[in-house]
Design a protein that fits this description.
Structural class: alpha+beta
Number of helices: 1
Strand content: 35-45%
Oligomer: single chain
Strand order of the largest sheet: 1-4-3-2-5
CATH architecture: Roll
């Protein structure tokens, strides 16, 4: 019986944070959230890859912006057919690291003295509109 391929999560890193809330006290309000993610495959070993997220949050009526770039490094153990590999690259890996990014954004906004911003959960198995209004409630 052939061994099933497995996905190994190596680590998660925050690469860049740009945070600007100005010197005014922010009122609760809506924020525009833009979420992008890409997969980068290692040129020397196609079983090594990383999933990179770039998330931009801007205040609709308040002077606020936050950009977070983060990545997770992964490895495919064993031989994976195209379907399994596509699943690992496009569904499993972003699903693993996205909760880390959500927690980071909630914590950084809370620790800055404002109400925490919780970006919406995402189902990477379906295509969604990645730019949605978000309330700070």
């Amino acid at each position: 019986m052939a061994e099933l391929a497995k996905l190994k999560f190596h680590h998660f890193e925050i690469i860049k944070v740009l945070f600007d809330r100005g010197d005014t006290i922010l009122k609760d309000g809506e924020f525009k959230v833009n979420i992008q993610h890409i997969t980068q495959i290692n040129e020397k070993n196609e079983n090594l890859f990383r999933t990179v997220f770039i998330i931009n949050i801007n205040g609709k009526e308040n002077p606020f912006s936050l950009q977070v770039q983060a990545m997770g490094n992964f490895e495919i153990l064993g031989k994976a057919n195209k379907s399994i590999k596509d699943n690992f690259l496009n569904i499993s890996s972003p699903s693993i690291i996205y909760p880390y990014i959500r927690a980071f954004i909630s914590n950084i906004t809370l620790q800055s003295g404002m109400n925490p911003i919780t970006i919406p959960p995402m189902n990477f198995a379906i295509k969604t509109n990645k730019e949605k209004p978000l309330s700070s409630d």
